[in-house]
Amino acid sequence: MLYVVIIFLWTAILLYLLMGGADFGAGIIELFTSEANKKQTRKTLYQAIGPIWEANHMWLIIAIVILFVGFPVIYSTMSVYLHIPLTVMLLGIIARGTAFTFRHYDAVVDDMQHLYNRIFVYSSFVTPLFLGIIAGSAVSGHIDPHAPDFLSAYVFSWLNWFSFTVGLFTVAICGFLAAIYIIGETTNESDKKRFIRKALVFNIAAVICGALVFIAAFIEKIPLIDWVFGNITGIICITAATLSLILLWVLLLKGKTQILRILAGFQVTMILLTTTFRHFPNIVLFKNGGHLSLMEHAGHEKTIEALGIALLAGSVFILPALFYLIYSFQKKSNAYPK
Amino acid sequence: MDDFLAARSQMALSLGFHIVFSCIGMVMPFFMAVAHYYWLKTNDVLYKNITKAWSKGVAIFFATGAVSGTVLSFELGLLWPGFMKHAGPIFGMPFSLEGTAFFIEAIALGFFLYGWNRFNPWFHWFTGVIVGISGLVSGILVVAANAWMNSPAGFDYVNGQYLNIDPMAAMFNDAWFSQALHMSIAAFVATGFAVAGIHALMILKGKNIQFHKKSFKIAAVFGAVAAIFQPLSGDISAKDVAQRQPAKLAAMEAHFHTEKNAALIVGGVPNPETKTVDYAIKIPGLLSFMAHGDTNAEVKGLDSIPAEDQPPVAITHYAFQIMVGLGMIMMVLAILYFIALWKKKHWQNSKWLLKFFVAATPMGFIAVEAGWTVTEVGRQPWIIHGVMRTADAVTPMPGIAYSFYLFTAVYVSLAAIVIFMLYRQINMVGQLYDLPADVKPKRD
Ligand code: HDD
Ligand code: HEM
Ligand code: HEM
User: Which residue has the higher pLDDT, A337 or B1?
Assistant: First the structure.
């Protein structure tokens, strides 16, 4: 049962990265869109993500609940040492979620819209940045339970180059996912061209940020190269990701939409798999070489049992409904343009 | 402000904020389902407009509720890591089920809000009902988790170790039923009276009378039925508290001395120094009767509890008085309303009844906040009653006060924006929906 729970945890994180990520990416794209195109971009984005955006963010809650029920020590340790970035991320989530809703449900359209838009795009950038920082910090080995002072316990645990570059990488991935997703939702050629260009830009940005992550890891003596290339699974995943990248560029220039989405999703899955596989089951690495492990620090057997059953039962309800939601709005999204 | 106090205040602030949105998220879908049902049955476009107008309001509240809930699930760890480390695996069952309920709610909401004209009308209606049911279920589940803090169960606490964990037993602890029942009814009271009050005000102002009259009636009927049951369920809760948390009951009643034939204290100013309650009305024997069903039964006072285990008396007592007082007022108003519905039909058009409802707009929500203050402050100094002290659970990170100031600023501005948006929404009713039936509203 423990494995079932771990698979759910990993899948929830992956789905949050994919679906929540595309959702964040929509705001990131808006941030990097010229004034002239903003309105049109916003409209396309909203039609694409409107109906499913609540559901996209549920994956985060599922992941957190699995953590605090199943792996309480990991949850509480991360909460203590990463308190500050978690708080920033929460503020980002509050700002983004409310601004998104406000701008679409405000009965009057006036200057307030401006404010909502501002808040929405900036928080779309900050939230995944800090999500990445948190994920990076967990494995960066900067968390130090024996830290002598406030700064090294609660600030340098996350304020370092490695975590920061992982954050940037996450942002780039989100923008990339969103652009790819939206290409298929566009209704005219010029929009389509624009988003293809955006997808290319974000893809290049992701590759650059990825390189920065390796450089930062090298400087801060984090064995990232070994994690990624030191085992056969990692090599296979990375090769698959790289090959699919080439394919993706070709298809992108041709504007094939469905396959693109699958490929982009595949790449991100490979990246997550590579980075988590090697140090599995350890998900928090400490400065002194200690770690927190999903296997050793799982909750009591009965709890894991109950949690696994709850998750399995829940997915019987959720998955069909979710697929039907996505399906019905996909199928009909172009049928009701206004 | 010291860190411990800041952490408590931040928790209270976040929960006090979230509860408003969750009550609305649990209850409004039912109001909408009724209006929606009438629209489908009667083809009266006013009902469609009511459903749509409400659903726009609900979308705003829902998003705010969802983000404040997400914040809470992190805050449990950010502020109380010592608690979550041990409690998570024990009281986590309702949370893991709640995840499913939330998910279904979010999916159904997607169908409902974006599904106008896209689906079979009755399927669309049904998705709205699902939103309500799953909201209610998640409310009940999370209250069961809170009830476990009041009435820990499902584990053995031996030498500081938490052994023999049984998540199901933890979920179905002794307090879950009375709390979940009382909370669910409270959500209907609070939302019903708040919505009815707003529409009553608009009727009095003479704006879009037909629209607001129909809306008023739906909300008022729900609120009034619930308000009549609420004191009954409160009585169950009080008996329950007397059993499992005598210290809380004593603080609620400012009952300093253990005695038989104990009096019920109404109002008054508790004085912890002299252990008396000044200026209070005392009804002999009633407390004994309410707590144990017998006017001669002994009711434990604060003197039977070690000083370091006593909750703050004044806050708990005042909060309890506020809740009960408002509950009584709303019950009387509910009875008047039913008389108006059945016996004295002309009352329905009278200004005074509407004015009473306007005056009652915030009462339900104030009672909810007061009730939670009773439950949570009355549990102090324990975070898990009798097992773990709140002070031992707080995060070691210094500087929580700044985090508290930050969140206060955020929540205050959010509340202001939500009120502002609601105000705009209501003011737009005329322009959006007051068209002849054959003209389509602008923002569809
Ligand atoms: C509309 C709101 C509302 C109204 C009118 C009332 N209550 Fe209440 N009460 C709540 C809303 C509430 C609440 C906010 O929902 C609480 C907090 C925790 C809970 O489960 O319900 C609560 C808690 C609560 C508790 C503590 C339960 C515990 O700690 O486990 C008691 C003893 C009562 N109530 C009793 C009453 C009585 C005797 C009322 C008589 C009129 C009453 N309540 C009206
Ligand atoms: C939404 C309704 C709720 C409100 C308004 C509320 C209110 C409060 C208040 C006022 C406090 C501070 C008490 C004090 O320190 O003196 C508090 C503390 C706390 N509450 Fe609640 N509460 C609610 C529901 C819940 C639920 C459902 C849970 C958990 C499942 C919960 C968990 C906690 C925790 C962990 C603390 C901090 C520890 C403590 O002070 O004992 N609360 N809450
Ligand atoms: C008695 C107290 C509480 C009640 C009655 C309650 C009820 C609800 C309801 C009905 C919703 C649905 C959202 C809406 O319609 O606005 C909701 C949202 C949420 N609540 Fe609470 N809640 C309470 C306390 C808590 C606590 C203590 C936590 C965290 C540990 C929490 C976590 C959440 C989360 C994560 C969401 C967002 C889910 C979504 O997007 O639908 N809630 N709550």
Answer: B1
